[in-house]
Design brief:
By secondary structure, the protein is mainly α. The protein has helices at about 10-25, 30-50, 65-75, 85-105, 130-145, 150-160, 165-170, 200-210, 235-245, 255-270, 275-280, 285-290, 295-305; strands at about 175-180, 185-190, 190-195. The protein has 2 domains: about 10-115, Tyrosine recombinase, N-terminal domain (DNA polymerase, domain 1), CATH 1.10.150; about 130-305, hpI Integrase, Chain A.
Length: about 300
């Protein structure tokens, strides 16, 4: 992938291009992820050129230079200041880049190893209660147009019943659904294929939706837009927000990820263990899955507070 860096540092441009080729071919990263890496490294390279001079080399980058870049992003940024989670993603890209250069013998040590990840503020997860979940499904039934009702019902049911990410849903093809075994093949982060079990209701709504598609081929997109093309993430985002609004569900930070959080929360409340939920969500770290424990802790606190220990 070609890389254009402000200041045209030829050496860095070449090394960034080689890194992008590596993550694309060897690591199997998606074009979207590679484009994000390209953008992040281009901006960092431009900043380093301002700090170190146009002719700098990768080996000239120090932990101080990386920290200075993170401070710049936090205080100003290129269009607006970056929150901790965004700075963390950009730092992760830099760390991966220098890990690659270290393995290739281009630099002796990875300067990013000495830079700590920005710590985001803890935010309360946004998820739906069982009652809100039912209201959402009823909102789809009541408000979807006749032409899209089957599609939208299958889409929302799939998001709630499997906890998939937006990018995973839009990449699904018809042939990824195995109706005999009730499983769906999903392309997860890092382009890894996973075969995941599907709820009976998910399978039923998909069957009903595809029945109206007149025998679609296995390579055809599972979900189509009104133009008969593969549905995109923006459209799914719009539909989820639309039906949440129609259901009169008011919470902070409502998004398609709310349905993913709802899936995990329901499983945890049903008594499923964290390792099972981690596998279903494809979390790399158990720590990520542990975020849902606070929900159960709230339930326990509520239950304890209901105990009447008064003498009267």
């Amino acid at each position: 992938m070609a890389m254009i860096v402000s200041g045209e540092n030829i050496a860095m441009t070449r090394e960034i291009s080689e890194f992008l080729a590596y993550v694309g071919t060897e690591r199997g990263f998606s074009p979207k992820t590679i484009a994000a890496y390209s953008y992040d490294l281009g901006k960092f390279s431009a900043f380093a050129a301002q700090e170190l001079g146009e002719g700098y080399k990768a080996e000239d980058i120090t932990p101080y230079c990386i920290r200075a870049y993170l401070c710049f992003l936090a205080e100003k940024g290129y269009q607006k200041c970056n929150v901790a989670i965004t700075r963390g993603r950009k730092l992760a890209t830099i760390k991966s880049f220098f890990k690659f250069l270290t393995a290739e013998g281009r630099v002796k040590t990875n300067p990013a190893d000495q830079v700590r990840m920005p710590k985001p503020l803890d935010k309360e997860l946004s998820y739906l209660s069982q009652q809100e979940l039912k209201r959402l499904l009823k909102a789809v039934e009541s408000n979807a147009t006749k032409y899209f009702k089957r599609r939208d019902t299958a889409l929302i049911t799939l998001l709630l019943g499997m906890g998939l990410r937006l990018s995973e849903v839009v990449e699904l093809n018809v042939g990824d659904v195995n109706f005999d075994d009730n499983v769906i093949k999903v392309i997860r982060k890092g382009r890894q294929e996973r075969i995941l079990p599907a709820n009976d209701e998910v399978i039923a709504t998909l069957k009903y939706y595809l029945r109206a598609r007149q025998n679609p081929g296995s390579k055809e997109p599972l979900f189509l837009s009104k133009r008969r093309q593969r549905i995109d993430t923006g459209t799914v985002w719009y539909l989820v927000k639309k039906y949440l609004m129609k259901a009169q569900i008011e919470k902070s930070r409502l998004s398609p990820h709310t349905l993913r959080h709802t899936f995990a929360t329901i499983l945890l409340r049903q008594g499923e263990n964290l390792l099972t939920i981690k596998e279903l969500l494809s979390h790399r770290s158990l720590k990520t899955t542990e975020r849902y424990l606070h929900v159960v802790n709230e339930d326990l606190r509520y239950a304890v507070n209901k105990i009447d220990l008064s003498a009267n």
